Amino acid sequence: MSSKTKIKYDWREVAVFAAWALFFLFTMVSGRLPLYINPKFGVLPLLGTLVTALMALALRYGRKHIGCAEHRDWSMLSWFLMPVIVSLIIPPVGLGAFVAGNRQANLLGPSQGSGAISLNLSGRSGYKDVTILQLADAGEIKGGKVTVEGQLLSSDQKLGANECLIAHYQMVCCVADVRPVAIILRYPEGYKPTADQWVRVNGIARREKRGVVLEAQVIQPISTPNPPYLY
Amino acid sequence: MVNIQRFLPLAVGYALLQTISSGGITPWMTTFATFFAAILLEAMPFMLIGAILSGTIEVFVPRERIARWVPQNRFVAVMLFGLLGIIFPICECGIVPVIRRLLRKGVPLSCGITYLLAAPIVQPVVLIATLVAFMGSWEIAWLRVLGGYLVAITVGMLAAIFLDPKSKEHIVFDLATDDYAEPTCGCGCDEHHHHDHDCGCDEHHHHDDDCCCGHDHADELADNKFAKVEFVLRHAAQDFLSTGSYLIFGAFIAAAMQTFIGQDTLARIGHGPILAPLVMMVLAFTLSLCSAADAFVATSFTQFSIAARMAFLVMGPMVDIKLMAMYNGFLSRKATIFIFGLAAGLAFIYSIVMRLVGM
Prior knowledge:
heterodimer; A: alpha/beta; five-stranded mixed β-barrel; two-stranded parallel ribbon; B: mainly alpha
């Protein structure tokens, strides 16, 4: 008996792997990936596409390997198809608003302000575009004007008069770990902040003991960025 | 899988069709679907890597060699398996197929459990991730690794005493045949494996009990340089199908928890020296984060002490919702409860000790 005998393959298993290969591929080419996982980990779905496609081919065209073919019923295999179908029918959304209502803003930033990073903005005549994450991460902020974008949050943290929180959403691996990173926005007299509104702020940032404070000079409403995350 | 798990995909499909036909997708559904797909897109590639590693072990590492590698003294073996993640760093999703394969190759259950618990923490990737998340604090990074190692080997040693003597009762898949039901022979006859048969084929490998299906691959693989790769892929595919559904079920529950239970609700429950680590452990259980990312989330819980967050960092990669489903896929319920209970209890004790030394 030749070892090159073709297997009587289970087409359902081949279909499962083919579906996952296409799902990984679709997620990448459709531009949905940044709404699911950090694009820095884009190699993962690429790897997933490659491996699942190879597995489908090995199952379909491989030599009979005897005995290693588990008889699985449809209910078992349907588990593998369910997430693919659910994801195709229900497209992903930016979870900024959900996260804002669900997870406490981290006023001191991911570094807890302990700070090895120094943000040097001095000596600039114009505003420099920075992210809230950069500001929150900085242990030291040396002068200068900044432009930041973020979402205004209602907060139960003790803030001064004319102060609210402005946050952006940081994703490390996937949306499961997204958290709002916030700084304090000190807005001009007469300005009425609207909770959940996305804004672009020109102002001067400095680090205080309770966190980074952005003294706003101009505040403009903007539409929700897509994706609403910083990576 | 139990019945509820068997029919859940059908129920979800039915609910989806009903929802679409009755006029639309609600916000909670999009939130849930986003979490669900994201957790799987992140975890599945790691599980595929684990499955490939498992297939590689199957094809390239004979059972006898593994038996030679494992020290005779069970406690020494447990301590060494606790460090295996340094050489073979695998995250908590990818390690399950590897453990299944190692158990099938004759690795003692206690050693498998130790590697299962330690590898997602005691490894360079997680050490560096924790270091970066906590702004270069080597102290916190090493304390996490130390905590993970101590918890893993303690559970492993207790497993050597209490689970190893009845390990066959606690491993719920067939060690000999990889739970592949009704295997059929490659020669086209109807004879099953592990016995001589007179089918007229020239295959004599059915009796060398090395592969999951009773095969020694040496003869089969010698004649084709691509055959080894193909066999690795086929074994990996079967391992993936055997364990992946548990990951998907776990991700389903984790996504539901993420959608319906606010983290702040839990975080606000309490901050006392006893309550705080417990709250962080409940968070770790419900969030089901990857061990490479959880340190970044832990840093954001600034309202909790480092000691409380250490409970989150040590327990999370060992005990969470998706892992519970995955462990149940190859271990008995009793063994799963044994592992979960001990790992959680020891992580809590470790956190209290950290608190006492001023963290």
